[in-house]
């Protein structure tokens, strides 16, 4: 498994006091606003630090989501609830000043949307774009939900990178945590893409990170990185070269598709990110041909093995160029020199060792011609394929009762455009850096999980 040196920054936000003013007309309504504010503050304090544990993150997220959903979705009245009659207007004595007979009849209570809370559009919410830093503002608690989950997805990917980089050789339990965190991250980004962005009344201007292709890239990248753990384990446990080659090819495909997803996005924004994805795709295609060469050698097809391994060398050299391009590229992400990382250096050593062996054996034993045509890869692994873990949103907390909800005196939520307001400014999140080691691990693959 390679070092994960590219991580986009967290989205930044302004404080959110949940201040409804006189519209929170009861003590219960005001109290739930205070609880929501405290839960949000607690979650935001965890997000910048990938050293925090997963249990603390999940508990804090579920607590805030429990409060937040009351501002997103309506709270239904209890069974048997009867709407309160609206007071009739006082009839004026002077002719022509009184209301019509229809206006003096009891008016029905406004009907709430089955999907939206009447509170959904009540407050202004501001978050920065994770790719550009530009502030995006919406009057929509669904936007708040998306932004919070976006940061949580990024946190899981950063936590995985932190655990993986914490030691030259980490435990199997840590490896399982890394693997699971990346699958969780993929599931969160998939949930945002499929279930939440479509609920926005309008796509916010400048919200490049809500582009479906950007979200798809996150899903594919997180899945690919989880599969890197599988490839590393297969190498360390000396599974069949055919399985390693097929897994490496699938990992290459995931990184390649992630890069392709970003083709439609402004290159000046995602250039550095795409270099990372292209670099990883070249590395894993090199792995695929390397272990394919081992399979061919084992089956006495030495000429074809040499052709496969020469292709692996070419791809490793291409990855080396991309390493330098990544380090020099401008854009969001941490400073890194991937050409110095063991995952890159050790692959070159492995490919050279197997190629030298093939060429020696061909010279002494097989005397086979090296074909121009590249041997086909095994592309359907029978084991080890990774998929995102389906994300499940926490339930609305029990504090959201009808009495609490009814304590907010707002009309039914409607997707009306708000008047243009002064833009908020937000400070970038000060994140705890992920320290990585470039020491050589004591294993075969150069991976940092064994």
From TrEMBL:
Region (Disordered), start-end ranges: 76-112, 413-450
InterPro entries: BRO1_dom (IPR004328), BRO1_sf (IPR038499), BROX (IPR038898)
Compositionally biased tracts (Basic and acidic residues): 421-441
Transmembrane segments annotated in the record for this chain: none
Coiled-coil residue spans: none
Alphabetized Gene3D superfamilies for the sequence: alix/aip1 like domains
Source domain of life: Eukaryota
Pfam families in the cross-refs: BRO1 (PF03097)
Residue ranges annotated for the BRO1 domain, each copy included: 110-450
Family that this chain belongs to: Belongs to the BROX family.
PANTHER family with a match to the protein in the record: BRO1 DOMAIN-CONTAINING PROTEIN BROX
Protein name: BRO1 domain-containing protein BROX
Native source species: Holothuria leucospilota
